[in-house]
Amino acid sequence: MGNMDWKDKQLENLLREMPKINDKQNPHELYQAISLKLNKKRTFGILIPSIASLAVVILFMFFGKHLFFLDNQINHKSSQESKMMDKSEEQQINFKDEANSDNHQEQFDTMMKTEPLKKPYLLLYKENNSQPMFVQAHEGVATFEEAIELMRNDEPNQGLTASIPPELQIGKVSVIRDHALVQLTNRNELPQTQEVNFAFEAILLSAKEFGYSTVEFKHDSQAGTGVFPINQPIEVPTAANNQETK
Q: What total number of domains does the chain contain?
């Protein structure tokens, strides 16, 4: 305990011997100055991270804009390439379709050339003879329906008369294998005239040219022409100008 008192007295003597410091500053002002410096350091420390964050945001916006623009360019280029590929494929398909169409047309033309046109029968009247001759038309046709249409007209340059008169009205014409169907559209019963009988025989002869075996004239009436029956198959003649029918 005595030792501790001695050290305290020695320390007190040393402090008294130190020179006095005369500081005339107001303690309050000194405190304010120290606080201001500390706040500046603190503000500067806070400001640095804020500036760094702002710089990151600016860089992100700058590079993000360019990346977005670059991505749009890539997508646009990819879209253009895709459209070009689709267009190229479409052109190839169209080319194939055109080639197939041309091929089918060539096949049809070849078939039409290899299969000769058929010539239906018209009437040739000689002087002082009421019984005409059945003569093939100068013009050929491809179908039996076209033959019926041609048989309605004269061929004056050849001296041939239409074999189907106006009073015999014909509607739909169809073919089932080697059997031809001719729909008659007269409202009443069929005219009982020699010209109608000639028309029936000319149609039968023309059907033979197309390779058909039988012809059936369809009509609501059950009465025939007097020579040819209605609504039942009629076999084609063996030859022209032969009045016998099977």
A: 1
Q: If the chain, 246 residues long, is cut into consecutive pieces of 10 residues, what is the mean pLDDT of each piece? A: 61 66 61 65 56 66 58 64 69 63 62 76 89 94 96 95 95 95 91 92 97 95 80 93 56
Query: Is 227 within 8 Å of 199 (Cβ atoms)?
Result: no
Looking at residue 13, its pLDDT comes to: 72
Residue 153 inside a domain? The answer is: yes
User: Residue 174: what residue type?
Assistant: S
In a domain, 175, yes or no: yes
Q: Which domain holds residue 181?
A: 121-235
**Can you give the pLDDT at residue 108?**
57
Model confidence pTM above 0.70: no
